[in-house]
Design goal:
Chain lengths: ~210, ~210
């Protein structure tokens, strides 16, 4: 069984990441979504191990001390983190594990997993993004301004991602993401074992007899 | 019309590059094969502008002086080079231009076109490569040793390529190459214009009114 690859997916709020992930998981069976751990309380309908692993601060901080997170952050008084054991178990099973995190998280993961694949999802244009952020027109202008300024910040780090995918049509975008993942598996940096082996065998063959 | 991308394809002798290129060109219409220029004489059946552009040394050296080659080399007393004008015209037409060159050429092209895509083609194993190099068993052991030692040299630079593709089944390999090229077009480094534009528009939108 070949190990899976680690995929970080980020994108503008309003780019449709959630729907994309759902469609990707439904269409192909090689993916697993990473489940984060958090110290916040479950909301109605949320299930432990599905939306999040819900744990108390003591457990979370012990896990931090054991270097048990690929990345974690504190946000509004609660911890959120990506458990290393869960991700590594899925990779070992051959699953391509998707982390839906933001740019700060992506940078931390990249430091630890330099071979991860990173994707940034965007609507086809800033106008379209604005339209989606405006939603059904029920938000105040202040909320919309806040969202737009957040998107402007998010846009700053786009070049740090390997790929940018445009979510115009859902199915097309899912195919594009899947194609990028398939191509990524042929990258030389993800085939070091195979390359080493063929070199060694060639050395034996060309020196032999 | 979007500009095409420049693709360098190398690989072991015996990896089946020629057949792959033919099949790729037959299956998809977005590719153009670069035609090299040479000072050697045409062989029987070769046509000017198809196998090579056949030119004399004076013309070739003038073109060198005008920086008219993406890369060139002298080999067995003859010049071989990739004409820049031909490649750039095809890229402007929106064609993805494939250069089938060796590693030294690849490095020169990369210095000039840092956004080029590079692929290395290999048989599935060293044993299989040996089998192909042995061919129909009509070659002397000395010739085979020479080919194997050449392959050992060729293997040294594999990590300098972005992708390694295994040519086991022709159609599968063609699909894989095409998938890699499609994915490459979504790389952030090949979408700088789009990223710049969306950033500028977001700045206007979030500051506006």
């Amino acid at each position: 069984m070949e190990k899976g690859i680690l995929i970080v997916l980020s994108g503008f709020s309003g780019a449709g990441k959630g729907t994309l992930m759902k469609e990707l998981m439904k269409t192909y069976d090689n993916y697993a979504l990473s489940v984060s751990m958090t110290t916040r309380s479950p909301r109605e309908g949320e299930e432990d191990g599905r939306e999040y692993f819900f744990r108390d601060r003591k457990v979370f901080e012990e896990k931090i001390a054991q270097n048990g997170f690929i990345e974690y952050a504190e946000y509004c008084g609660n911890y959120y983190g990506t458990p290393r054991d869960y991700v590594e178990a899925k990779l070992e099973e051959g699953k391509d594990v998707i982390l839906e995190i933001e740019i700060q998280g992506m940078r931390k993961v990249k430091a630890m997993f330099p071979k991860m694949l990173s994707l940034f999802v965007t609507p086809p244009s800033a106008r379209e993004l604005e339209k989606r952020l405006r939603g059904r027109g029920t938000e105040t202008e202040e909320v919309i301004k806040k969202r737009l300024s957040r998107a402007t910040e998010e846009a700053e780090g786009v070049e740090d991602y390997e790929y940018i995918v445009i979510n115009d049509d859902l199915k097309t975008c899912v195919e594009e993401i899947h194609g990028i993942v398939k191509a990524a598996k042929r990258a030389t940096l993800r085939n070091e074992g195979f390359i080493k082996q063929i070199k060694e065998e060639l050395n034996v063959l060309s020196e032999g007899e």
